[in-house]
Amino acid sequence: MTPKNIRLLFGAALLAALGAGFGLAQLIPHTEHAAHVKGDDHDDHDDHDDEAPEGVVILTARQIEASGIGIVAVGRGGGNETRLTGRVESALDARTAISAIVGGRVEQVQVAPGSPVEAGQTLVVVISGEAATLRANAEAAAAEAEASRLEYRRDSNLVELGVVARRELEASRARSLAADAAARAAQAQVVAAGAPDAQGRVAIVSPIAGVVGTVQVTPGGFVAAGGGVAEVSNPAQTELVFTAPPALAAQVISGSRIEVRSPSGDFEAVVLGVAANVREQGNATLIRARPVSGVLPPAGSPVTGVIVTDRQEDGLTVPADAVQTVDGRSVVFVATDEGFRATPVLAGRQAGGHIEILNGLDGSERIVGINAFLLKAELAKGEAEHSH
């Protein structure tokens, strides 16, 4: 067989092997492939070949990333954690009961229950004799004030001519000032009565935007001064109301933060106000709050909250998941050049998802704050293997 025929035969055999599914990898010498795999395995486990110091877990960067272990700095703070129960309620400025300022006959009812209204929109028109009288008195007082001003101006001119004594000028000036004051008072009464027109019609308006809840008058009926006309509320304007122990009233201030859990998710809220010794709540403290961002669940939804009081800015804290129990001791895993060292600590109070560290850390360390339990398991596995 000629060399050319030998090359053709070898090429045909190579094509047949590829077509059978062996692939190029099967043609690589086994010893070379094995050496490559061994090298990769050595890269991943090189650190494990050496004996790890006691209490130290050694992981490669690839293993840390794959396990989701998070390294954080030691925090500052601490305090007492109190759990609260509450609900979502309409905000205090989101509901109003509207009353008639003056008594009279209901001429028009321009809304119905469920009607959306804007701030300043007319709800009911009332015709009131009292309002008409107030308007007339205001107009009369304004006319009297104008007449007094003209008289004072005339006396001023006559004084310059020597016809009127200065004493009379001073008297006319006093009458003018008194008339002006009476006119202002009469006009203020008109404004307080709803600014009726000359016929005594008063438009009763909504002070807020929202939805009409109830309408308590009908056209043709009579409404007394102070009588209820309608109720308006804004269901979109809500706030959080928590019930707290009375002792908490002196520790919570406006601006404090609350971690809130609701049916629609967790969020942070800021305290708006604190009311102590609310009788209808059994002398409990009521805490009003609004979310820092986002929209609250519907009114009536139950919520729970956690508030931290008696904060200590100079204390050391770590995430609650960072503290693990190893051989009956509380430890945190501190990141070092050689790995993660289980460092014994003295844990204090837990508040806001963090635990105070009273002893064992100086605050400069970087620790494992996420998935620290994986290092605990790895440490236990290493100790078990070492014992065998």
Structural class, by secondary structure, is alpha+beta
Strands, count: 24
Could you give the order of the helices and strands?
HHEHEEEEEEEHHEEEEEEEEEEEEEEEEH
Can you tell me the CATH topology of the largest domain? Answer: OB fold (Dihydrolipoamide Acetyltransferase, E2P)
Helix content: 25-40%
Number of helices: 6
Within CATH, the superfamily of the largest domain carries the name RNA polymerase II/Efflux pump adaptor protein, barrel-sandwich hybrid domain
Coarse morphology: elongated
Indicate the radius of gyration in whole angstroms. 42 Å
Description:
- This protein is an alpha+beta fold.
- It folds into four domains: 3-48, no CATH class; 56-79 and 314-387, conserved putative lor/sdh protein from methanococcus maripaludis s2 fold (Beta Barrel); 83-91 and 237-257 and 268-300, no CATH class; 95-233, OB fold (Dihydrolipoamide Acetyltransferase, E2P), CATH 2.40.50.100.
- It contains six helices and 24 strands.
- The chain has helices at residues 3-19, 30-49, 61-67, 129-161, 166-192, 372-387; strands spanning 56-57, 70-73, 75-76, 80-90, 95-99, 104-109, 116-117, 122-127, 201-205, 210-215, 222-223, 228-233, 238-244, 257-262, 265-278, 284-291, 302-309, 316-319, 324-326, 329-336, 339-344, 346-351, 354-359, 366-370.
- Strand 20 and strand 21 (339-344) form a beta hairpin.
- Helix 4 packs antiparallel against helix 5 (166-192).
- The chain starts with a helix and ends with a helix.
- Mean pLDDT is 80; it is low at 1-49.
- Residues 1-25 form the signal peptide.
